[in-house]
Amino acid sequence: MVTMLQKKIFRDIGENRWSFIAIVCICSLGIALFSGINLYVSTVENVVADYYEQANLADYWIYKAEISDSDLDNIRSLDEIEEAQRRKVTDISLTGASGSVLHIHAVDETAKINVPELLDGSKLDGSETNALLLDSRFADAHELSVGDMITAGEKENQTQWLIKGIVRDVEYVYYAPEGLTIPDYHKYGFAYTNASSLPDVAFNEIILTVHEGSNVSQEDISSKVRKTLEGTNILSRHHQTSYRKVADAMTGIKQIGLLFSVAFFLTAALVTWITVSRMMENQRQHLGTLRSLGYSKKEIAGRYALFGVLITIPGMIFGWVIARYLIAESLYSIGITYYTIDATGVASFTPHFFVSALCVAAVTCGAAMLSCRKSLKLTPAALMRPKPPAHGHRILLERITPFWQRLSFSGKIVTRNLFRNKARMLMGLVGIIGSTSLILCGFGLMNSINGMLDKAFDETVQYNVEIKLRTPLTMEQLSDIYESLHSAQNIDATMAFSVYLYGEGGNVQSPYMVVMDEGQKSLSFMDTNGNTAHLPEDGVLITPRMADALGVDVGDKLTAERLDGIVIPLRVANIVDFPVGNEIYMGKTAFSKVSDLPFLIRTLLINGQGLDLNKLKSDPRISLVETKDEMRSNMLIVLEALQSFQVILIVFSGLLAFAVMMVLGRMNYYERIRELATLKVLGFHRNEMKRLVLRENIWITIFGLPFGYLIGTLLLRAILDQATTPDLEILPLITAFSIVVGFAFMLAFTMLVNYIMGRKFKGIDMVASLKSIE
Question: Are 446 and 509 within one domain?
């Protein structure tokens, strides 16, 4: 049954319904942003993690030219190994499919590791020849289905393959081979077949898992495997392309979303705390009346805590709807575009939702109860009288005589009111500073991404076309390709291979080592001080993020270990600012001093316009031909989820700013209704009253904007520091245009609120307002 005190609470909410609605909106936005981002990330991470477990994703991939039965038995005999299987791995080119390539895995037993998931058709029973299970994304791109035939090979070596099933595979959640930035399912796919279908191909791969809970390091596993099988290449799960791409993408979104949403939530919580506290202080006369009617302090405080509950419940509902169906769903639809996983949809809840809801409840209920307890310490008689005004005193600006004397009468009143009503000014400043910093941080993310791309593709990359080879070749083997590119202004050949890079403290990374001629013109290196850097004759160039990850600086020693176990000692010659890519760079001369490996070309970097690339794209030796514009476009596609996230941040920050300004404007109006009525009685015109009261909001906004810029810059720096991955480093940048637009938004919100509140001035009831105390 609803008591009289509860009825009063609902009546108070009805009288202050617009302020109540604004607070509910602020709390809803805080809950939605914090829980929505984490809901998306948690959904993808949980789906991927379950997929890894169900399909038994390998912990290590071992490559060797030929693997015998005894080699496999020796690997299986190692104590740490739980399961091991061998496979034949090769690439086949399809006829009439625009140079499409299938990465074939051939097995001679039932798959127990990296188990392909059958989506359509039937599994291989081991007896078929020239039958395969085809990648589902490749099949969709080429409109292939179960029962279709595909042709591979050239002329007399052509082979017909029957598609017996459509599958997806756990080791290709994100399939971007041969240095692709994003998957290209029209050109690249994978398939499974029986080992008997490839009689001329030797077993050349072992996949294995280690015992669950094993604490053996990657270095120890690699050492034991190499002692067992000499001349092997070893790749760990954490350095496998698909696993690493998905993990890096989720880490980036999670870090950016966590820091921004926490900053957003703290701003909303602080504004809500101050607002609820002020609303409760404005109830002091009602509290005195209730005390005089015999209600206990505990009963009154408990009932007023209901005010916080009534804010929290709709905030939870609206926050969940926005988080689930707007933020998480939009990010999910974009984020899984290139992930081959079961699109189960976004989960309904995560613990983050309940944490944020509890925080909102603590803020609203806590503010209401503490404010009540503070007021209830007074006697009922004291509460029933208006709060006595603070003792008048000269503010600091009054002591600056030249400045004070130049102020108009209205300017002096506005200035005094600003500095004497510290709680009101604090709430306004917190809201303005927080909202401004969040809006500028959202614009800054966009500026920073564009700045990173401009630096990478306009300043550092000086070539127009990149050609990647399927296998490393010598200069003589590429003479005809060089001849077809005779019109190019410059061609730089590079040698590239994967390494494990160990720092002095035992930290490890897995970049590509790129070896080039010292006089190359394709890449323009700049050190961290902005000075031009060249490939040295001793040592290696690394990026700042690589230096941080390894804990090294210029002059420190590194150890590079190729996947085949060959160790190359290195020294950091310089640290260069290269925002895209996970590579270290070395000159031919420096490389020859630390390794006897021959220089074999893996990539050609070409500077030239109007080149005929069509013939090269069909060359079987070439796996990828990509222009600079295509690289930039693909990078934007990779960052598409992050760009959508930026839009969400800016929109939510704008809504928060508007809600804060609306609450501030309404409370300033209703708290000063008697003052406004007095001014009206004294003959002040409506425009004069507006200048005296509403101008305060403008000055609070102007005071808060510079601090919002400073905090927004710090927040952006913190977010991007956390979002840095081995492949990507985005430096913080907020352009002057973004600053102007962000400031304009805040001033526009302030002027809009002033316009809305200014219309109420003509409806002030002077008699009712001046007799409100009675």
Answer: no
Point out the domain boundary residue: 388, 409, 430: 388
Contact present, 556 and 504 (Cβ < 8 Å): yes
Q: Is the domain of 275 the same as that of 213?
A: no
| pLDDT value of residue 765 | 61
Residue 318 lies in a domain: yes
Closest by Cα among 572, 575, 564, 563 to 530:
575
Residues 582, 588, 592, CA angle at the centre, nearest 5°? Answer: 110
> In this structure, are 594 and 731 located in the same domain?
no
Average pLDDT of the residues in 62-66: 86
Structure token digits, residue 757: 């509140």
Q: Same domain, yes or no, for 603 and 645? A: no
Same domain for 323 and 269, yes or no, is yes
Domain that holds residue 493: 465-608
At residue 427, does pLDDT exceed 60? yes
Model pLDDT, residue 209: 92
C-alpha distances in angstroms, 125 versus 122, 128, 194?
Answer: 9, 7, 9
Q: Tell me how far apart the alpha carbons of residues 397 and 292 are, in angstroms, rounded to a whole number.
A: 43
Judge contact between 435 and 660, C-beta under 8 A: yes
pLDDT at 318 (0 to 100): 92
Q: DSSP letters of 373-398? A: HHHHTS-HHHHHSPPPPPPP---GGG
Q: How far apart are CA 714 and CA 735, in angstroms?
A: 15
528-533's contacts with Cβ under 8 Å and 24+ in sequence apart are 528/575, 528/576, 528/577, 533/574, 533/576
Where b means 16+ CB within 10 Å and e means fewer, 304-331 reads bbbbbebbbeebbebbbebbbeebbbbb
Buried (b) or exposed (e) across 189-226, using 16+ Cβ within 10 A?
A: bbbbbbbebbeeeebbbbbbbbeeeeeeebeebbebbb
- Say if 632 falls within a structural domain: no
CA-wise closest residue to 704 among 747, 650, 734, 754: 747
- Separation between Cα atoms, residue 434 and residue 715, nearest integer Å: 11
* pLDDT digit string, tens, across residues 267-323: 777 777 777 777 776 777 777 777 788 878 887 777 777 878 888 899 899 999 998
Average pLDDT of the chain? 83
Residues 540, 543, 545, 548: what is their CA dihedral angle, to the nearest 10 degrees? 40
What is the C-alpha end-to-end distance of the chain, expressed in Å?
Answer: 32
DSSP-assigned beta bridge partners for residue 2: none
254 & 376 share domain: yes
Confidence of residue 706 (pLDDT cuts 50, 70, 90): very high
Q: Give the model's confidence band at 757: pLDDT under 50 very low, under 70 low, under 90 confident, else very high.
A: confident
Which one of 590, 608, 626 terminates a domain? Answer: 608
Domain presence at residue 629: no
CB 608 within 8 A of CB 485: yes
- Taking alpha carbons only, the member of 458, 607, 588, 461 closest to residue 535 is 588
Q: Identify whether residues 28 and 90 lie together within a single domain.
A: no
Q: Is 5 exposed, middle or buried (0-12, 13-18, 19+ CB in 10 A)?
A: middle
Convert the pLDDT of each residue in 227-276 to its tens digit.
888 878 888 888 888 888 888 878 777 777 777 777 777 777 777 777 77
What local confidence, expressed as pLDDT, does residue 633 receive?
A: 82
Whether 239 is covered by a domain: the verdict is: no
Mean pLDDT to the nearest integer, 635-654: 77
Shared-domain flag, residues 77 and 225: yes
pLDDT digit string (tens) for 528-554?
888 888 999 899 999 988 888 888 899
Confidence at residue 1, expressed as pLDDT on a 0 to 100 scale: 42
Continuous H helices in 233-296: 241-281, 284-292
- Provide the pLDDT for residue 604: 92
Based on the structure, what is the number of domains in the chain? 4
Task: State the average pLDDT over residues 328-353.
Answer: 82
